[in-house]
Write a structure and sequence with these properties.
The complex is a heteropentamer, with two copies of chain A (254 residues), one copy of chain C (292 residues) and two copies of chain D (253 residues). With 292 residues, chain C is of the alpha/beta class. Helices cover 35% and strands 19% of the residues of chain C. Classes of the chains: A alpha/beta (254), C alpha/beta (292), D mainly alpha (253). Chains in contact: A-B, A-D, B-E, C-D, C-E, D-E. At the D-E interface, helix 1, helix 4, helix 5, helix 6 and helix 7 of D face helix 1, helix 4, helix 5, helix 6 and helix 7 of E. Bound molecules: adenosine-5'-triphosphate (2 copies) and magnesium ion (2 copies). One adenosine-5'-triphosphate sits at the interface of chains A and B. Chains D, E: InterPro entries: MetI-like, MetI-like_sf.
Amino acid sequence: MNAPLRPNTLAPDPLSITVTGARLTYGGTELFANLALTIEAGITTCLLGPSGVGKTTLLRMVAGLAEPEPPTAIDTSDGAPLHGRVAYMAQQDLLLPWLTVLDNVLLGARLRHERRSPALVARARALLDQVGLAGREADRPATLSGGQRQRVAIARTLMEDKPLVLMDEPFSALDALTRLRLQDAAAEALAGRTVLMITHDPLEALRLGHRIHVMTGRPATIGPALEPPGLPPRAVDDPALLALQAELLRRLAG
Amino acid sequence: MNAPLRPNTLAPDPLSITVTGARLTYGGTELFANLALTIEAGITTCLLGPSGVGKTTLLRMVAGLAEPEPPTAIDTSDGAPLHGRVAYMAQQDLLLPWLTVLDNVLLGARLRHERRSPALVARARALLDQVGLAGREADRPATLSGGQRQRVAIARTLMEDKPLVLMDEPFSALDALTRLRLQDAAAEALAGRTVLMITHDPLEALRLGHRIHVMTGRPATIGPALEPPGLPPRAVDDPALLALQAELLRRLAG
Amino acid sequence: QDKLSVLLDWFVNPDHAPLVVAQEKGFFKDVGLDVTLTAPADPNDPPKLVAAGQADLAISYQPQLHIQVGEGLPLVRVGTLVSTPLNSVVVLRDGPVKTIKDLKGRKIGFSVGGFEDALLGAMLEKHGLTLKDVELVNVNFSLSPALLAGQVDAVVGAFRNFELNQMDIERHPGRAFYPEEEGVPAYDELIIVAHKDKIAGDGRIKRFLDAVERATLYILNHPEEAQAAFVKGRPELNDDLNRRAWADTLPRFSHSPAALDAARYTRFAEFLKARGLIKTVEPVERYAVVVK
Amino acid sequence: MRLLRALITAAVLLALWQGVVSLTGVPRYILPGPLAVADALQRQAPLLVRHGATTLTEILLGLLLGVALGGASALTLASFRTARRWLMPLLVVSQAIPVFALAPLLVLWLGYGMASKVAMATLVIFFPVTTALFDGLRRTEPGWLDLARTMGASRRSVLWHIRLPAALPAFGSGLRVAAAVAPIGAVIGEWVGSSSGLGYLMLHANARMQIDLLFAALVVLGVFAVALYAAVDALIRRALPWQPDTHPAEEKD
Amino acid sequence: MRLLRALITAAVLLALWQGVVSLTGVPRYILPGPLAVADALQRQAPLLVRHGATTLTEILLGLLLGVALGGASALTLASFRTARRWLMPLLVVSQAIPVFALAPLLVLWLGYGMASKVAMATLVIFFPVTTALFDGLRRTEPGWLDLARTMGASRRSVLWHIRLPAALPAFGSGLRVAAAVAPIGAVIGEWVGSSSGLGYLMLHANARMQIDLLFAALVVLGVFAVALYAAVDALIRRALPWQPDTHPAEEKD
Ligand SMILES: Nc1ncnc2c1ncn2[C@@H]1O[C@H](COP(=O)(O)OP(=O)(O)OP(=O)(O)O)[C@@H](O)[C@H]1O
Ligand SMILES: Nc1ncnc2c1ncn2[C@@H]1O[C@H](COP(=O)(O)OP(=O)(O)OP(=O)(O)O)[C@@H](O)[C@H]1O
Ligand SMILES: [Mg+2]
Ligand SMILES: [Mg+2]
């Protein structure tokens, strides 16, 4: 049952991304100036920070969707541009209302004019099953609950088979149990891939992140990485995590 | 600074609502049948449940927005209809893009053709300050981050001065610290009022709820109320809460 | 059978009787012609289209021919359908206007034909008035309604065989002032024009005119049968108005459609030049011929 | 129920019409009463049917062509900035040119047959469809565009799979206008020159003061317009089930 | 930059026009070349200015009235289910009635002055504006309506504060169409009966075979249309800053 979440192509050498000297202003306010962040290859980096600090903007900048100002530099380890190598899950679900749930999951293939092969469809169905939406393939997004919509968006992101995965609060609309289940599934599916994930839940960051950064201040800066022991997904009741949670909250208050 | 959150009119006798025999089907599937729930007067009732179980639908039904089927009965303690006595915060922020942040908070007054008195505006500004958005009054929603939008929606809901308050995952897009702060503010502002709040976070329910219900199954049923000791807002590090959290998770697992 | 396309000046009406009767009675077929008659919505279009080679012949008006030739259209008159003016100035019989003089200070409706103001100007001048003494209003093609409804006090451009009958039927009889009696030289109202460069050696035109002549005489000799042929397949033409117009039009058809009175054309050209509508008076043979 | 409503509407209209005629005393050669028109409708039924058939064909062909061309040009405008910059003024100018100026040209190029009428109907329909769709294509939710961009979609693919479906409701709005103005387009085309069709019949009747026949033809034209509009409206609702259609007056409160 | 582009557009148009004239060999009394028209424009400038001023006044008044009436009727349609059911067919029929059938009536009631022309322009503009706004009013995000309902908003208040602002972009789309068709409305009005205006001038020039003057008047009319469209477009963008306007061809990829 877990197999379909694992990409069926051999992943290329994982990619690392370095952001340096990043600068971005909105209407005169410097959101960040001279911000630096390294997204290490093949692991999950979690980003926490107070609401409105600029996490989404940073993610969009890496995805090529927000226009940074000089002297911003975004470098990849292989030197090639990032365009076309990113899977991006936004803070809103962004489901297309006219497509069925299944077609929303297959959107990437449709947009790239890829053949809708039976294997592809089977993988999409398996992903939907994994996120607990088996049987809803033919429904339209308007008939889904908030959490169900978010799960379709997760499936759509996992469907994209890209070296860099950017996720903006992917589990925010899910109940505690579904969330745990999907954290596990995502961790497994994204193992070996370079992931940058924004979350508001310190425990979630501690479960899933190899490295955890906290972003604070205006202009915002990114603190040093916290590297919890052990491999994700870590157990929720690990006492070490609880100690680190207090540390994270302290940094957040920073 | 906290004063403005407290309604400046004398609250009438708090209202309790009893839902009995509730039945609602979507396209042949019974979402719930013969569901019963009492929303006790003057306290906060929290509702948890797996994604897609029907929490939002139930809330909308109470708000008069979803059409239930017979033999559903929604009774109020004073026998008068609920219409016009509900403050409703939906799962999406539903900010109007053409209004400024301040005008969005003042939407209710505008829609009811109430005079935009200086006192009213001052209260709206104070609420915005309370949710951490002082200085953003004149901005449009499009320039806000996800969490900032949600905070405007919270301010708008608190601005409405109604006996029954319905909130659907009001803090889902907020970081841990902002969330704690706003939980406290909301608990204070809503003290003595009848509140039904949907949340996915068991700890949040335990902090804020006088009574906590878990909704599970299809057709969904509502379990017995869990009544944590002490008065909300309870401290996060209360060890009693952690024990109850495990109990809640067990109930959620159904 | 040679094909021949003919553009009418307006929708089929009794003015076109010789053409329609020739068609219905097979006179065109008898001279080896397969004629199509097409009605335009704007009477100004047919000469342009003949000049552009879109049709072989067009029904037009003599005053317009002078203007068109003056503007450089390669047109030439080859035949005459109606050899008197039909145009007239019409007022309500029981209205305040009894003579042209009474038009002073009044509203006059016209349907733009390009020549009505010149015609009216000449008529007014004979009575000591000028165009400045009246207000001209374009009423498009609603001449009699505008007059009957009292929107204007007179109309110019009304056809004596048509609008007068129309008003009579509506029980508001009209009074006509005839231009040729009020200082405007007589002219041919309806003529047949062709492209200047295409008539040489085109035997079809001569045969066409022969058939039209034959039809005209047939109408004079057998008015009843001709009328029946005219409304055959055009039931909408079989009403009181058209029957009356038919009777009033009969005497005005040219009995010799191919014949040309060159002096009459020169006289009229000089009139138009005097009114400023054309710049030069060209020799008649440049724009009106007798087809051999 | 709907039929009943339609009948009542018609009855009220007729009553209003009769009222205007009776009250203002409009002479019948300007506005005949409904009875006279009903009589003409009945007497001239075969004529109306014959000419109506011609016009209906032109309307439908014009609608087809106009919508196709309008859709294509909106897509072109949306695809190429260059096209937008240079073509838009051209389109706008095309709306301001009265037919009669074009008539000889149309006849010159298309002849007196059906082509010139279909061309006119097309021209009339073309602009509302183009603007509506183009406007819709411009108003796409930016989040969807961002998503598509990260998915490596080409501009054409975004246009086709995101912008176009998102613009369909706006397109529908343009279609409704097109359906309502198509009949007048065909009639204007018939004024260019024709030997059949309701436009021809009307000019004809007008020139002969058969105003009752003119109004009978108008009634037929009105029926066409309403029927077309209703059909297009139903079609649009069917085709866009995901589209919120919240009839304001049906709200409860 | 924009001016330059406009100039180049004009130049390209002229070149195209000249091309058509040269290639197809259309005779000049059907389609005169740009040079002849430019000459007429210059020679007849005072005449064109005088008649153009009349027409421009009619256009602007018609636009004002048409937009006001269209907006009001869309709001009425949206407010009352009854209005929607009974009035919509009427509106549709009103679009299918050719002017010339109405002309005598219009003149009878409004006279030959400016009123009848303004009425025609209004009629032409009215429908696109009504449909566009009405369609926009129907497509409101249901969540907003729910919210307003719980806030105890009356139906009228919802219409005014939620539906209407949400429908403004759609209304803008209708306005654009209206701006483009307003000139033809005024010209048609002038054909109904007039003693000045570009429509009058055109009829006159056509009858006198002064086709160069006719086309010069057309050029002026075209300039009016483009200027109006541009002005309305700019106005709409200004008035709706919150409205996503994502020009498809400006995307990077
Ligand atoms: N308009 C609709 N048509 C059909 N089914 C619907 C519709 N709206 C909701 N549903 C279904 O009803 C169920 C309950 O939805 P609801 O939004 O109440 O869930 P929820 O408990 O709030 O979930 P979440 O925590 O994800 O928000 C879901 O399975 C959903 O698919
Ligand atoms: N288009 C815009 N114009 C102006 N300001 C903007 C715009 N978009 C974002 N901002 C501002 O930039 C700041 C950062 O926004 P961003 O969405 O990156 O925050 P975030 O860290 O993701 O917050 P959240 O956790 O609430 O999602 C916010 O203060 C926001 O108001
Ligand atoms: Mg964010
Ligand atoms: Mg929900």
